[in-house]
Amino acid sequence: MVAAANLHGGTANDGGAKPTGPLKTVWMAPKLAFRNLFHDMLSLAVTLTGIVFSVVLVAVQCGLYLGSERTIAAVLDQVKADLWVTPLGTKSFDDPAFLNGREKYAVLSTAGVASAEDLVVGFANWRKPRGGSTAVLVVGSDWNQGGLKPWNIVKGSLNALAAPAAVAVDETYFADLGISGMGETAEINGNRVSVGAVTHGIRSFTTLPYIFTTLVRAQSYLDAAPEQSSYTLVKVAGGENLEEVRKRLLSRLPDTEVLAHHEFRKRSLDYWLFQTGAGAALIAGAILGLIVGVVIVAQTLYASTKDHLNEFATLRALGASAGYIHQVILMQAMMSAVAGYLLGMVLSLIVVWAAEDTTMTVVMTPELAAALFFVTIGMCAIAAMSAILKVTRIDPAGVFSR
User: Please, which residues bridge with residue 118 across strands?
Assistant: First the structure.
């Protein structure tokens, strides 16, 4: 242990020994921690590998969780509605059924309602132009009246969707749909369609491609009546109480549910993330990453401390307090944490970048990055406890028996 001979005058209760002589102004704990850490490069590599693995695993799992939330709520977040009229028992936006019909007119005639728009959502069969078929989720709305419209359009335009049989698809699903770009034709439930607009990044949690088109066209493709819809989007007039308007709607539409926008959004998230078990699996993976990181770092720090027991005993015999030794071990753990975190974040950002144009959405936010930093610090602090417990049992007199 370097600089042990320079420690004098500390007592067991002084909260940390200070160096004297030429090194009087130098705080030795960080230096000792640094030299302990880099003394054995193999042990350092093992420690950093454990921390990096843990950081990347937790970052990816949490990023997938956040990405899943964004994907599930992506369409809902584009809708500007205060209330949703939905069929009874609807679990999420991607679990559509048809209302009985004419709900829009009942809504418009209700006091406190400013506007209402129908939204049609339904499963359909997409027949590929070169053979084969796949399931899709057709979304139809009258966006000229404030309904849901496709966004992030990179090719074509909304105006192009006014053409007969025009639909909008996302470029992420070209391979699944058997197409390669604008103008290609296919069939939806036996109806010929043509790609009139291409979007980027509109993905569904169920992995079924969204196909956007006009309200009338969607009703035709899904064999719905002209006055039938999956949802009715309601805007409440200014100054009106949301709950009062909802009660009025429920009294007029007994076979439906009337949900506030945030309630329907939360219901959709809860269904896919928790009722299906997808969210629990992601959280379990993140916890597993933390456990693996703690175990590897704890084992390495314990082994490093055990290798330097004689040096720590010498420091204690020279007057260094137990608190000072603990500082050395904790600083060693914190240095490992910072180095492992930085390396882990670099790898995590590479994973986020690589997944950007795939159906797997991984999100990294500043809040998540900050949380990961504190989690890594806490993980290494917990791991250091095993080494601290070992040092606590050192007998300083043992150094004189060597």
Answer: 232
Domain boundaries, the chain: 4-70+278-401, 89-254
Whole-angstrom distance, CA of residue 16 vs CA of residue 326: 9
In this structure, the strands spanning 191-199 and 185-188 are: antiparallel
Contact assessment for residue 15 and residue 257, using Cβ atoms and an 8 Å cutoff: no
CA distance linking residue 22 with residue 220, whole number of Å? 89
- 197-210: per-residue pLDDT in tens? 999 988 888 888 99
Q: How far apart are CA 151 and CA 168, in angstroms?
A: 10
> Each residue of 209-258: pLDDT tens digit?
999 999 999 999 998 888 899 999 999 988 889 999 999 999 888 888 99
Query: Based on C-alpha coordinates, what's the Rg of the chain?
Result: 31
Q: Over the stretch 66-120, which tens digit does the pLDDT of each residue have?
A: 888 888 888 888 888 899 999 988 888 888 889 888 888 989 988 998 888 999 9
* CA–CA gap between residue 317 and residue 76 (Å, rounded): 67
181: left (phi over 0), alpha (psi -120 to 50) or beta: left
Contact criterion met (CB below 8 Å) for 373 and 348:
no
286: tokens are 């993140």
Question: If you average pLDDT over each of 8-12, 180-184, 390-394, which comes out highest?
Answer: 180-184
> Hey, what amino acid is at 129?
P
Print burial letters for 244-256: b (CB count within 10 Å at least 16), e (below 16): ebbebbeeebeeb
Angle at the Cα of 383 from the Cα atoms of 349 and 289, rounded to 5 degrees = 40
**Which among 348, 294, 293 has a CA at the least distance from the CA of 60?**
348
pTM value surpassing 0.85: no
In this structure, are residues 323 and 16 in contact, taking their beta carbons and an 8 Å threshold? yes
